[in-house]
Amino acid sequence: MCLLAAGAALLSAFGVPGVSPPAALAASSSVLTWTKQAPAASPPARDDAAMAYDAATRGVVLFGGRRPDGSALGDTWAWNGTTWTKKAPAASPPARQGAAMAYDAATGNVVLFGGFASGPTFNGTWVWNGTTWTRRFPPVSPSARLGAAMAYDAATGNVVLFGGATATGGPNALGDTWVWNGTTWTEQAPAASPPARLGAAMVYDAATGNVVLFGGLGLGGGELSGTWVWDGTTWTRRVPAKSPAARSFAAMAYDAAGRNVVLFGGAGGRRLFGDTWVWNGTTWARRATATSPSDRWAASMAYDPATGNAVLFGGNNGISFADTWTWGH
Questions:
Q1: Which CATH number do you get for residue 30?
Q2: CA 95/CA 325 separation, integer angstroms
Q3: Which of 273, 146, 157, 139 has its CA nearest to residue 197?
Q4: Pairwise CA distance, residues 128 & 306, whole Å
Q5: How far is CA 50 from the centre of its chain?
Q6: Could you give the CA distance from residue 234 to residue 128 in angstroms, rounded to a whole number?
Q7: What is the domain extent for residue 308?
Q8: Would 101 be classed as within a structural domain?
Q9: CB 316 within 8 A of CB 273
Q10: Cβ atoms within 10 A of the Cβ of 291, count?
Q11: Alpha-carbon distance 31 to 308, whole Å?
Q12: What's the pLDDT tens digit per position in 200-223?
């Protein structure tokens, strides 16, 4: 059993959807575009890996994911803006896919939570200090889950985790909100909250000072299209004039150079997407580019401020990819 290919109820919706022809690009244009990279070294093909920018080492960190044969990976790679380097930490989390990861600027560590492998769903909290992984044992922790969304909330100095799903089969999507303060997890009790989901895209929007969440797979197995923002206390649903189609497992990052949130791809309605959208804090706008990654879901994405580009790796369209793309000028 694996996160992106399971048999029944909610998890049956994870099966690789048929590939649809790329939708026509929007008429709008932008000076920003996708550029395919040709690094000297690269992680093997995978999807559903965890990825985050590590400000302490000034590189993008990638962990785990799912191999083309469906098995989980447990390797750690770093992107320096030009190539990938495989790390050899003294300790490491067990192999997994569907883990949530974010850089915790308050502690200077990358934080990883949960994920799934053949058999167990994890609830361990691990931190990466640029050299090795260390498991933390907080007194309180979210339950074991896969497909949760996670982002660092710079306005509050906490890592925020939302939703995910258990792996016991059936429609077990979660709708809880937790924060990590570097020592322990605390469950929040917001006045309003997004419906339960997994496979949502979430990132901190520095331009507005809010965490932004989009899409995901709901309790009934259908993809969602709502845009929600977390202000450190509660969630608020936004109703933009324009929005991407409902989807799950899209890739998303905050583009500090463009001061927009960038979303790419995902899966919805038994099709895959290869479109690029930007969120300006009020509405979504589709961006047309001369080049673009192919339609896919479960790609990994993070913004690299050292180069001023967002970095996208891998994903799945029936096969897993091993390509690296950057979004920027």
A1: 2.120.10.80
A2: 25
A3: 146
A4: 19
A5: 7
A6: 29
A7: 9-51+149-328
A8: no
A9: no
A10: 9
A11: 14
A12: 999 999 999 999 999 999 988 899
Q: How far is CA 84 from CA 37, 156, 238, 281, in A?
A: 11, 32, 37, 32
- Measured at the alpha carbon of residue 115, what is the angle toward residues 276 and 251, in degrees to the nearest 5? 5
**pTM value?**
0.90
- Burial label for 236, CB within 10 Å (0-12, 13-18, 19+), is middle
> With contact defined as beta carbons under 8 Å apart, do 163 and 200 qualify?
yes
Q: Which of 226, 266, 257, 280 is nearest to 326 (CA)?
A: 257
In the DSSP assignment, the letter for residue 132 is: -
User: Which run of H or of E encompasses 165?
Assistant: strand 158-165
Tokens at residue 28, please? 């709008």
Asked whether residue 79 is assigned to any structural domain, the reply reads: no
Give the Å distances, CA to CA, from 160 to 93, 101, 174, 240: 20, 10, 14, 23
- Domain-embedded: residue 284: yes
Kindly state the greatest CA–CA separation across the chain.
52
Whose tokens are 């049956």? That residue is 12
271-292 pLDDT, tens digit each: 999 999 999 999 999 999 999 9
Q: What strands lie across the sheet with 149-153, from one edge to the other?
A: 149-153, 158-165, 173-180, 185-187
Q: Does residue 142 lie in a domain region?
A: no
Q: What is the dihedral of CA 198, 50, 112, 67, to 10 degrees?
A: 90
Radius of gyration from C-alpha coordinates of the chain: 18
SS3 content of the chain, % helix, strand, coil (to 5): 0, 45, 55
